Structure formats: structure tokens, C-alpha cells
Amino acid sequence: MSPIDLLCEQLWGLAVSHPDLRVTREAAGGEWQDVERYWLVPSATRARLLLPAAARAVTAGACLNYRGLRPRHVNLARAGLGAAARAGAPLSLHTVAVQVRRSRPTVAGRLPLASVGATLGVGEVFASLGVRSGANRKATLSLVDSTGGPVGYAKVGWNELTDGFVTTESRVLRALDGGASQVRTPHVLADVDVDGHAVVVTEPLPEDVRSITSTTHWPTAQELYALTPVHRRARLADTDHARALGQRLAGRRAGSSDRPTTELLGRAERLLAELGALPGQLPVARRWHGDLTPWNAARDRSGRLWIWDWETAEDDVLAGLDAFHWMFSVERLRAGSMTGIGLDACLDRALPHLVAAGLSRSQTPVVAAVYSVVVVERAATLAALAGGWERVWCGVDELDSLLDRARALLGRSEPASG
Question: What value does the CA radius of gyration of the chain take, rounded to a whole number of Å?
């Protein structure tokens, strides 16, 4: 799909289907007027970033806000774009616009950006966004006002999966209500229904936040469990998360006609059942973030930790999964693929956080094994929705290997089938 097709799918479905709206690269004129217009950076066919084609301050702010969250090479490129915006120079040879018929201007109020602006009541808002093409793709708008100052973020659902992500994020952030003194989360500014799909708008992060680039800035155990506290002990099978995970695996397996996928899901189900049958109780957290990584967290100038992107959070879950996911994600980035990730190395790095949660050293391989089952279920869900494994970040063979390595950590061989 082209970048514009992806945006029509995720953000501008109404504009494509409504007779009085259109998405076009043409200039406004005649019966059509612009509602939104964006620079396609670097070009129409290779667009990775959309920036508002608006007043100079608006476009410059969209380019330059939150420089502390970006790598140096990205900031250099953004600085060039920001300088061009301030000078009134074009940022690309190509733009794309959402337009409305001049005779029906009120129809534009149903578009996502207009709906968000009206709900916030802050006047006209503008957006920049990246072009997402992965299996779990969704539009996330970085919002600015007429001065270019940050207004917030809007995450937009467009199908059943992404609507679920958006509503989960809103629910969890409302429950956290800004977080704790040492760890903060954005407040929810608004929940908006746009053409039957969910949109959550969260407040802007502090402008002085900086990305977490050093291991010395990684979350401490105290910070990690400030928002995901251990609230009881139980067998794994008696946690809400394990029960829901098992149901999703069974449902996904029953709905798949692809033999390698069904065999993979069956292996994951069997491993989860074995883990649930293990004796002894484990620490259970009130929730887990579900995607806690260095790119979903930052520290402000005072050193306080900020965590966002709670769309995959789940309640009543084995404690320690967030710590393991952090280490696994860092290793995956380093290795470039899942096959190069050592689960034992991830466990070693996560060990202080796991012990702090109340896990004994002998119990820690259970965390790696449960996490491996989670990865299988998530990947298989994305593959089913995408119509195949091509757009998923890993394949069946890699996931089979992951389950093998999890069993090796546990010291448990695969039971004979049949």
C-alpha cells in the first residue's frame, strides 16, 4: 500500500467514503476547499512523516517539539525541516490534503482532527504523524496549536484490534490518574468517537523529557512496581491474565486454517497449561504495561520517569513480565532478530526486578516462559488480521525456536503429542 492509502485506511476512511469529502494531492479550488493539508516527507511515494502545511510557527513547532526524545540523526533532519518552515520554504515537493465541498463545510467537523479539536475546545489544532505500515498499525497524531506549542497526542482506532488498543489505553490511564510521585503517566484529556471508532487524547509530555539512552537511567525496581504493584500471590492458572491468554490461544488456533500456525499455537497452549499446573504460588501484579521499552519511557530534567503507550496493558498478571519485556526488547534491537536473543541473558538482566517482586531464583524461568507464550499469541493475532505473516515482525520458525528456548530454561522437554 502507498503511504496515502495507509493514511486513508487508518485515519481518513470517512473522507474516502463520504461524497462531500476527498483526499487529494490537488490544490484547493472550484467547489473544493482544504480542511487539512500536509507536507509529505520526503516524498509522496516514500512518505514516512506528515507535517502540517500551515502557518510557519505551526509547522516549525511540529518539526522541533520534543527534540529530547529523538536520536541525534533524526534531530539533525528535523532541525533542517524546522529552519525551512520558519523561512517559509517548502518541506517537500509533494503535499496531500483532505478537502470538503464548499457547499457542505460542516461535514468536515466529523473528521478525526476536527472532532478532537472541538472536544478539546482549544481552537484549531494541527497534527503531525508518522506513516505506519506494520500489522498493528494505527495513526498517532502529535497535536499543536496555532503557535506551534504542544497540545497533546491523539491515538486513533480504525478496526476492531486498534479500537481495543485505544480503549484499553484510555481505561488504564484513567485508572492510573497521572501515576505516582516517582513515576508519571499522561492524563487523558478526552475520549472521542469518530465514525464509530475510538480516539483517545492524552496531555502533552513535559517539554524537557529526554529519551532513556543509558542503562543507568533504566527503571529501578521501585519505579517499575510503583504503577504495577504486586497485590497478591497465586498459582499462575488462577490469574486473570493466564486464563485470558489461554482462551485467546484456543480461539486463535480454532480459527486458523494454516497448519504451521495451528501447530505453533498448540505448542504455546500446552506450555501454558504445564506452567499453570506447577506447584507453588507466584507474585501477581495488579497490571502490567505490556510494552514497556526505552522508547515508551523517558525522564524529565528532574530525573522523574514518564511512561506512556499503555494500549496492551492487562490486569492481574504474573509479576516481572514488564522487566523481562524491557530486557527482551533491548536485546532484540541489538541482535536485529529474535533468533539472536538469549533468554537466559534477559533473565540475568531482569533478575533484580524479579527478585524484588518476590520471585525466587528457581521461579524466574517461569516469567521467560509465560512471556514467550505471550509473544506467540500476539504475533499470531497480528498475522491473522494481516492475512499472513509477511507484515509481522517475526515468523513461525522464530516463534517455535523461542518456545524451545523457554522450555530449555525450565528444564522441561516437549511432551509427546497424541
Answer: 23
Q: Are 189 and 203 in contact (CB under 8 A)?
A: yes
Which strand (E) or helix (H) includes residue 62?
A: helix 56-64
pLDDT digits (tens, 9 = 90+) for 113-166: 999 999 999 889 999 999 988 878 899 999 999 999 999 999 999 999 999 999
* β-bridge pairing 150-156 and 139-144: antiparallel
Mind listing the pLDDT tens digit for each residue in 397-414? Answer: 999 999 999 999 998 666
Q: Which domains does the chain carry?
A: 3-207 (3.30.200.20), 221-412 (3.90.1200.10)
DSSP string over 75-128: HHHHHHHHHHHHHT--S-S-EEEEEEETT-GGGGGGSHHHHHHHHHTSS--EEE
CB–CB of 126/141 below 8 Å? Answer: no
